[in-house]
């Protein structure tokens, strides 16, 4: 991989220990992905925030480097493990709370924006088409490439942090022009957000770095996010290309049979003890829709709604949060359905959700069963 004289000197440690560490990560990543060089980025989005995922080693690492490391580009942050406003309501372990707050403080010390959101594309202004970014959150990377006309690889927690410190990323894979090797023909009629989530999960399993999809109608935000969230859980594929024209690549149908296969893989319960909405987190438009759907209705069981803090503040001003709380919703910001200690197998047997991403992590990481339904079915079956 070609490096400039300044990059070579940083790699040798001539610009300090932190820069040397960051360049080592980027060069190793670049060599593993056949990168030509390092290129500047304008925005990094970091994972590695939840104490459940990075543990004591991650917390200690961040605490140590935050004493001297600073990010050099706009850098935003994934959800953590709880909503800091109501953490006392959930009986969490004090060690978890302490370590999570340490992680939060370390990132803030390094100059990271404490967004605690997996949908940065909805709460920050999108740069011009073709802008190079470094997104570690899987659904955000796919959304950036597929819907926002940005360019990012599916970054790891370490590579995104290194990119945030240096302001550069390896020029490889999806940062270059790419050609899908598979076209998926959408054959399911009248798809909802759950259908699109299953399509994404299917595409992520069979795709390489990108897939072409044909036969799609215009999607709303919930459906776009569902597709990105589903794709991000099942493989390394990180981009949808939408092309109705003929192509020479292999063609595979996503039909009722394939959809049922995905549903059967992730749906492990006939009903849930708790309902979760927001994986990826809900944006303001989705909160507005949910409020309208719940008009005059209320949930028959506990319903947890996850959204970014900035969206919660907007929703509160409009009056949406009052309506949702009237309907029995617990509204949580700063955290997400996935990997949160707020939901665990010790107090929950099964969760009802409309999220493929949420279903995957609830089943595989939290160890709880999942009842998959579309949002309209949840409203119909779980409210009165």
Automatic annotation (TrEMBL):
Molecular function per GO: lyase activity
InterPro entries according to UniProt: PMDh-L-like_dom (IPR007506)
Source species, domain of life: Archaea
Domain (Phosphomevalonate dehydratase large subunit-like) ranges: 1-380
Enzyme kind, highest EC tier: lyase
Any Pfam family: AcnX
Catalytic activity: (R)-5-phosphomevalonate = (2E)-3-methyl-5-phosphooxypent-2-enoate + H2O
Function statement: Component of a hydro-lyase that catalyzes the dehydration of mevalonate 5-phosphate (MVA5P) to form trans-anhydromevalonate 5-phosphate (tAHMP). Involved in the archaeal mevalonate (MVA) pathway, which provides fundamental precursors for isoprenoid biosynthesis, such as isopentenyl diphosphate (IPP) and dimethylallyl diphosphate (DMAPP).
Name by which UniProt lists this protein: Phosphomevalonate dehydratase large subunit
